[in-house]
């Protein structure tokens, strides 16, 4: 732990004021050094009150959306997912950062987290617009012992973890707005507030590098629209954020830690059998397309039908309208739209 973290720990573990002298003794540094570190913490947004003859006091941090390495690390409850954690104020793309870290020998579980991306990557070569200090942009390094054709399934594992984290944190009876979270196959997380339309709040981009015929490494990049309140015209119909749905800001550090808690468990269950079977019931319960009419945008032969669920390898099972046998739709081959709209 560095000195900044140690001071935060001291302040957190006390209900009242901690004197400058106590901090000097606990850390073995001078009063001036303590004062300088407190100044830095204040600059980062920590609400620290300083009162002559009493010392320093940390006001409630839980309600603030402080997002940095310390805030996330303090909440992480995982064994390996999110360790080590590298935070930057700004970067090009966290997916690219992870590949660079992998080349330097970083282990599975390494997490790159940033405040803003200047070249965020979306699926199908699109740009992922990443405004500063409102959302979550993060990528994890994985080196699983999997067949290469199992890798695309990891995107569904990640989607499930984000869904589970949002449901756990934001659907308590205390929430003023009733939000329903779901997954739009294969990996968009959507939310509907008070019965309104489903809006996309999270996108996932998985990239894999091969060596010979084996997986060298995989990066899963996740962008969660947390506290953004304005969206460009082109995506305003389909994109939303947690804050817009819930009617209040969310604590990004808390959500980040919760996502990795669920991911670690789901990933381990998946790897054990190299199949989504152990997660299928949970995934299908979250699937908003299930039982709904969908249009399968197959470039060869588009068709309409009802989404039934997923296969153990993550394809969407669609029952065609024309009564022909169920079809299994792969995400790489086709895209699925709701007949009435986005979901
Ligand atoms: C999508 O198009 O739905 C996928 C978007 C994925 C965006 C995330 S943000 C963090 C990570 N870094 C990137 O450059 N992209 C992913």
Describe the structure.
The chain is of the alpha+beta class and 343 residues long. The chain folds into 3 domains: 3-58, Winged helix-like DNA-binding domain superfamily/Winged helix DNA-binding domain (Arc Repressor Mutant, subunit A, Orthogonal Bundle), CATH 1.10.10; 69-285, Bira Bifunctional Protein, Domain 2 (BirA Bifunctional Protein, domain 2, 2-Layer Sandwich), CATH 3.30.930.10; 289-338, SH3 type barrels (Roll). It is built from 9 helices and 14 strands. The chain has helices at 3-12, 20-27, 31-43, 69-75, 94-103, 153-170, 242-246, 252-273, 277-286; strands at 48-51, 55-58, 85-88, 111-114, 136-142, 179-184, 188-193, 199-211, 214-224, 293-297, 303-310, 316-320, 327-329, 335-338. A 7-stranded mixed sheet has the order 3-4-5-9-8-7-6, with helices on both faces. The protein has a 5-stranded antiparallel sheet with strand order 13-12-11-10-14. Strands 1-2 form a two-stranded antiparallel ribbon. α4 (69-75) crosses α8 (252-273). The termini are far apart. The model has no long low-confidence stretch (mean pLDDT 92). Biotin binds at residues 93-95, 117, 120-123, 126, 128, 137-139, 203-205, 221-223.
The gyration radius over C-alpha positions equals 22 Å
Number of strands: 14
**Main beta-sheet annotation:** 7 strands, mixed
- The SS-based structural class is alpha+beta
* Number of structurally distinct domains: 3
The helix/strand order is HHHEEHEHEEHEEEEHHHEEEEE
The CATH class designation of the largest domain is Alpha Beta
Number of helical segments?
Answer: 9
Percentage beta strand: 15-25%
Shape: globular
